[in-house]
Amino acid sequence: MYALELSDRLAIDMLSRDVVLDELSDWSKSNDDRDILVDRLSSRLWMALEKFAAQKYVDQSRVYVSDLIVILRQRPGNPLFVAIEYLVRRHFVWRDRAMLRYENVLQTQNWLAKCNPIQPQCYLWAINAQTKLRTRRLRGLPDELRREFYSNAPSLPEVDEWNLRALRHLGLAEIHRHLNGSALPSVLWSYLLSAPSQVPLGELAGDVDRLDDKKLRALLHTASNLRSAILSKLLNGAGDVNDKTCKSKGESFGVRSARDSGWSKAVNDCLRNMYDPQKFSSRNQFLAVSGLPKYRDAAARLPHASDHPLSAERALLVCAFEYLQLNPTQTMFLAALYAYMVIQNLVWRALIKPREYAKGFDRFERYHSHFLRDVEKTQGRVGQDRYLDRLLQAQNTGGVRWVELRVVPASPEKGGPLLEARKLDRALNPPDLKKLFRSDNKRRELIGASRSGMTVGLVFHFIKRKEKKKPDYCRCSCRHLELRMEVRRQATAIGRLHRSQGLGRYVVGVDAAGPEIDAGPEVFAPAIIWLRSRPTLGLEPKWMQSARKTLHNFPTPLGLTYHVGEDFRHLLSGLRAVDEAIRFLEMSSGDRIGHGLALGVEYRLWCHRVGNIVAMPRGQRLDDLVWMRTRLGSANSGFSGYLFEVDKEIERLVREIYASDESGPDPMPTLQVLHEAWKMRAMDPLEVGRAWRSHAERSMPDEIAVHDSPKLMNKAYGLYHDYHFNVKQRRRYNELIKVSLSGDQQSWHTMVTCLQDMLLKDVVRKRIAIEINPTSNLCIGSLADMTEHPVFRWHPPEQSSTALRPNILVGSDDPGVFATELLFEYAALSRAAEERGATPREISMWLNELRETSRKFCFLDTRD
User: Fold this and answer.
1) pLDDT by residue (tens digit) across 418-448?
2) Residues sharing a CB contact under 8 Å with residue 300, sequence separation 6 or more, in sequence order
3) How open is the CA angle 234-240-246, to the nearest 5 degrees?
4) Which of these, 3, 206, 221, 303, could form a disulfide with 61 (CB 3.0-4.6 Å)?
């Protein structure tokens, strides 16, 4: 697999490295002829080969490198076509449309983060489709097929596999799709080029070579100018691309004639000043077309194109490839198209998270909150059309019928959840369809299809975040005070919307997402439990009672899904967080755990990936050990020999946190007291904390049940209160310590595996589902490839396996961050199962079972 990735990298280098832009810029300054340009670009292949010559597996890829060399020698006049054709031959197949090869799905994932898949897809349509269509006797259908490709093709190409066609026909349920990260850069590209000067600056996240944010914004100006020049040639001077059709429309595009002798000079100036676009003429700015929204471009007037960004971009590339194929001597057009595509791929690489490196949730946040994505909020269309883009992307993956969109509600002052519900309602039920989309009948057909064929719901999720203030900043504030107050306000707004007669039907669930290391389930438990409960005759806290005063309608309770077990400092912390979510949030049948990787990652493999030492707060380490010691001790699993060292570490950590406390002469807390204090964290400290007026008062709130010993529970409540309000203990609790992982890994592996099995049994017994997002898990979790995914431990394709088999659901998470779609997630799982040795029959039954389980556990009404 690595050899295939290495050979692909040679072609990718020719399409997505900024050194290609340097070669084009130097060529434009030297006034050399076409042969010099071709020699310079062709040298990039040899440079890449020399770069990887010292790699261990370079000999295994000689065959593939030789194939690429042969293609380059056969077509020396166009190195751009050489690189794209190599990707097409290796990864695509023609089945009346461009489809990805099933056997290369896992290898395709390696370059999806570096190259926009629309480029090789359009090349296949422009160069290979015509000959293939003639052999299939479809000469009368190319225009219809091309129009369908422009307007309705998936944002990520479909995969050629019969199991996936069956899933598409039966219909898929998208149970985990974040709205903010759903727009692929192919859609954002139009927004970025519409006003490059308004693109904000920020920290680059992706692999963008030697570029910084200012250079990247300058390249966006250049790409906008190059696009205008390319369209000028295609619309006014490309007689080979249905010139009569373009002229018959009688449109004036406000650009100079492509036959003007100044066209080549203008493009040459643009290439020469690529990183300083202010020197290039402003007359070739991004073309606006009368009758279309202000950011639309002239590519919408190409044959068979519509005014949607994806459709316009596909039409531009297909027509440009056709023109260059029919006019191979157009050196300046080749240089303009090549530079434009390389800039597009550099932006793609800045926005798409790679599969093979940059693991961890913190790095994912850099891609998800990338400054280039902010342009959609200012330059994008109205809110309902933004929703419609997401729905069309989900539908075009192949049969998605039910979609749950994860949304971060705006602050109540800015409209809150009500604003998002209104946007969705206007997208599904536009007030004036003809007026809104009068420029494109095909667009209206797509809207009608989405309205009749999809069921959409909103899952509002709270955002986890670190504490802003230091623990000793204020003696009267509990942990995460600001976040708890914000969650209260958001929960009140969500509850009011959910119980409204009109837009409340769109609200189907709640969630909490974000970095879970510093904000656990205890922060969100009071609000989530209140949102999902009925009135209880005045037994609620005061803020819950006041929020219910104006709520008289009580519809179906909200579904619950919670991001947990994905991001953790230590694997034990991830397992404890899963247990806290089940316990504190009162999860039951039909609820769902998001990601949950901690339940399936092997401890030895995790230690190997993270290293020998991890840093974590002292108190979190104590909580992990207390939780593990209690769970294993109550299981009577024969771990007494292993737990001796754990008891010693617990005793040491207790002394470090509590021994220097000046609260009184009380002895050190026992293991049972520590565990009971941990279970009390599900309570809201803003409510129960009022009962603790001084350290001498040890009266517990009425809602704390006393089981065996009132004295024990009293001590536990004292620890719970100190956990929130004792400044000195909080400081010692938060101090970072180093935890070694190089000890007796065999015993730890046995204990952690037992804990995972115990939690999985709880999940199966309570009928709680686990949401997996394969590509997201691969990019964020400590997985080397898809074959290591925990789903093959939880719920393998082999029916004879003794696995516990919890309910597994498949989602796409953030398609715009990971360059994926729901059907592609099923394809990656299917290919990984095949590599692990599963038979085609087992894989077919397994995929259909995953599809059916996702449909049953969907919060939407999925009755056919």
Assistant:
1) 888 888 888 787 665 444 444 444 444 444 4
2) 289, 292, 306, 307, 311, 312, 315, 439
3) 55
4) 3
